[in-house]
Specification:
The chain has 292 residues and is α/β, with parallel strands linked by helices. The chain has six helices and ten strands, in the order αβαβαβαββαβββαββ.
Length: 292
């Protein structure tokens, strides 16, 4: 069934020149030239895994939004989760729309947005629906930035053993719990890696028309360990989006060492393993300016 399009503004409201990709000054711009970024969580961030098992900080979303959009433009998060992208969009006076299949997470997002008392002209809307249906809600060539952190295949769909912690610190409140987003058959978080890559491709292929030509599409992803093997999910994302018609542009490393505490010794003394919790990938793509 054809759905009625969402009415939400997408035209920039600032006075920046048309050939500028953002509202940043040269001094602010240069901070983003380094390919390794660090962020801090703040009090407004969701850190309770009982509310959501995997969130990125508002400061991460805000930095990407300010780098790739102007005030008033439209930001899309296809896997909205706890609503961090929409909170950052409100902070920066960008219009934003997020999609999530979980009513619980959509309600959490609405509560977070309502708590932000900023006075600006932008709107932030969360839609409780599948990301596969985004094109039913948005007009073509209206989204200036898509940013998200998708469910990581079946990374969370297993009992947590806290192998990165030592001794008694391992048995915290998360120990032996399954912290999955849901068991919804449409949730990417219950899929194997090959199915995950295929579904990411399908979702972003269907999203392509709503993205403005030349606009950026950003995905935050971490690799995972499964049954003793490293699974390079960031490569799956790159393959899926290139197949869907996007151009791979940049890799940024999210250096998480400043927020990771009590790291155990992985692999010592015979098996070298880099700690996946200490870094993640921020992958930057663009929609071609001419799409055949």
């Amino acid at each position: 069934m054809e759905r009625k399009k969402i009415k939400i503004d997408f035209i920039k409201t600032c006075e920046c020149k048309n050939n500028h990709i953002n509202c940043l000054t040269a001094k602010e711009w240069i901070k983003n030239q380094l390919g390794v970024w660090q962020f801090y969580y703040e009090k407004r961030d969701i850190r309770d895994k009982g509310k959501h098992p995997a969130t990125y900080p508002i400061s991460l979303a805000r930095r990407i939004i300010e780098l790739f959009t102007h005030q008033g433009e439209l930001v899309l998060d296809p896997f909205n989760g706890s609503g961090t992208t929409l909170v950052a969009a409100k902070d920066t006076d960008r219009n934003a729309i997020g999609f999530d299949i979980s009513e619980e997470y959509c309600d959490l997002t609405k509560d977070r947005i309502a708590q932000e008392n900023l006075i600006n002209k932008s709107s932030q809307i969360v839609i409780c629906d599948d990301a596969r249906k985004i094109s039913n809600y948005l007009d073509n060539n209206t989204v200036s930035l898509s940013i998200t952190s998708p469910p990581y295949a079946n990374l969370l769909n297993r009992k947590r053993k806290n192998k990165s912690r030592r001794g008694e610190t391992r048995k915290n409140s998360q120990y032996m719990k399954v912290e999955q987003y849901s068991q919804n058959e449409n949730d990417l978080g219950i899929l194997g890696v090959e199915e995950f890559e295929t579904e990411v491709y399908k979702i972003y292929k269907k999203m392509l028309p709503v993205i403005k030509p030349g606009a950026h599409v950003v995905i935050n992803i971490a690799d995972m360990w499964w049954e003793g093997n490293r699974v390079p999910l960031h490569i799956s994302i790159i393959k899926a989006l290139e197949k869907a018609g996007y151009i791979f542009r940049n890799t940024i490393i999210w250096d998480r060492t400043n927020i990771v505490n009590r790291i155990g010794i992985f692999g010592w003394p015979s098996n070298y393993i880099t700690m996946g919790t200490t870094f993640e990938f921020i992958l930057d793509f663009i929609k071609p300016k001419e799409v055949s």
